[in-house]
Amino acid sequence: MNPRQHIGERIRLLRLQKGMSQEQLALHSSINISYLGQIERGEKNNCTINTLEKIATGLGCSLENLFGSESPLDNRTNDKNAVLTVLTTEDLKKLIVDTINSSVSGQRTECKSNESAKNGMSLP
């Protein structure tokens, strides 16, 4: 991995850890979103220190963090955790319970409708 790709991967990893989209980081950094994408992919040969400082400020970190010694590819767990933290365990439990409850209550309404129809009655 060349230095441009390493820095781009670091930026992407830090952005994901902060829970930011490329668009959000571009806005916070006052740079164009497509330019940010090119930097993250390591496609920009002439990215200036000034631009990297803007990105670091947008991420709320130091410029040194963008050059971190830890390889982002060796730390894919952090990348996955950044994505997984969108839903907390409690949020996930609530989602499952709500889905089950709505499914069960829908079946109950259907059963009552069927019973009423058999008895010649209609539900309000």
How is this fold's topology laid out?
Blueprint: H1 3-17, H2 22-29, H3 33-40, H4 49-59, H5 63-66, H6 76-84, H7 89-118
Could you list some keywords that capture this structure?
single chain; about 120 residues; mainly alpha; about 0% strand
Helix proportion: 55-70%
- Biggest sheet, open or closed, and with what strands and sense? none
Give the strand content. Answer: under 5%
Assembly state of the chains shown: single chain
What would you call the shape? elongated
Low-confidence runs of at least 5 consecutive residues: 71-77
What is the terminal separation in angstroms? 68 Å
Mean pLDDT: 76
Q: Count the E strands.
A: 0
Structural class determined from secondary elements: mainly alpha
| Integer-rounded radius of gyration | 25 Å
Order of helices and strands: HHHHHHH
Q: Specify the number of helices.
A: 7
Describe it for me?
This protein is mainly alpha-helical. Helices cover 69% and strands 0% of the residues. The protein contains seven helices and no strands. Helix 2 (22-29) crosses helix 4. 15% of the residues are buried. Mean pLDDT is 76; it is low at 71-77.
